[in-house]
Amino acid sequence: MSGFRPPPYPYDRLDPLRARADEHEGGLVDLSIGTPFDPAPPVVIDALVSADPRGYPPSIGTPAFRDAVRGWFDRYLGVALSGDEVAATIGSKEFVAGVPQWLRLRTPDRDTVLYPQISYPTYEMGATLAGCRAVPVPVRDDWSIDLGAISAEDAGRALCLWVNTPGNPAGGLDDLGAAAAWGRAHGVPVFSDECYVAFTWDGPPRSILHHGTEGVVAVHSLSKRSNLAGGRAGFYAGDADLVGYLREIRKHAGFMVPAPVQSAAVAALGDEAHVDVQRERYRSRLEALAAVFADVLGIEVMLPGGGFYLWVHAPAGDAWALAEDLAVRGGAIVSPGEFYGAAGRSHVRVAAVQPDERIALVVERLRSAG
Question: What pLDDT, in 10s, does the model give residues 240-264?
Fold first, then answer.
């Protein structure tokens, strides 16, 4: 049978290692996927359960939701936006996967999606699902995107450029001003995935919207910031023409964040105290895991510029061997770097997401195993 056949989902390939890790007393500790394990704040849960679910919520977001997004941008990032420059998403993954399709309908003479060479796999998959060319852009030694490596041909065919700061998986921090300037110079929309912005360790939080809205769109999610991944709440903001086009096409496609989730998102965006607590949790977990890699495994690990992942170079560049060793000795599941692009095959990604006591259990197991 001809036609498109979806590739295996990357994390399903870890099932044999899960069985090995689960042999430990206390079971496996999953550090492979960046899903939150800490509780959502009570103010968010209260808003979620008390909301009225009757009626269809606006696809673009309720007025209260969009006002909350604008207020958050203003307070947290110092960016002033109008109501026409923001809209809701069902989390951020569906938006990342869908943007190439929507853009190609608008610009059928372009067929290329540019994205970082080591990155979240949905940038590539979104291009594939839209029937586009997926072209990875090399990254520098600090894991930031190398815009100078984009060829003139690829720039001329580009529907969009994705950047991601802080980056997943390696925690790099891109020059977002340079990305915005590159997009404007080449007539290419730039989409900036900023869902880890609250966990920026090197310097202040940054957004591409600090460099104006022309030709750019920032994408955000409450999944990481507020431990609301199961709620699927996110938003995008930026260029009024781009946002307006996407808002209208998404109405026709029926994308709607459930009304109770929008109420919960309003509460989450109005409170930074819970984000400060979560930031300290992730920082301490990153430090604990980096220490055990150095002390027990003899692997020096740099803390990321942002995000809550360690990007660890495997001994002899054998990521699967390191993943197996961590499963057998520590009962921990991590992700081989090839999940994030072929250029990442010599690394593993370690997500510092599990509760402190589970992280401590991995540390204890590895120290005991020696």
Answer: 999 999 999 999 999 999 999 999 9
From residue 283, give the alpha-carbon distance in Å to each of 168, 303, 305, 352. Answer: 16, 9, 11, 9
Q: What's the whole-model pTM score?
A: 0.95
What is the H or E stretch that residue 86 is in? strand 86-89
Distance of alpha carbon 319 from alpha carbon 79, whole angstroms: 41
Residue type, 54: R
Tokens of 260: 């109770």
Contact status, residue 195 vs residue 223, Cβ threshold 8 Å: yes
Q: What is the pLDDT of residues 22-65, one digit of tens each?
A: 999 999 999 999 999 999 999 999 998 988 888 899 999 999 99
Q: Fold for 10-40+273-369, please state it.
A: Aspartate Aminotransferase, domain 1 (3.90.1150)
In CATH terms, 42-269 corresponds, of 3.40.430.10, 3.30.470.10, 3.40.640.10, 3.40.190.10, to 3.40.640.10
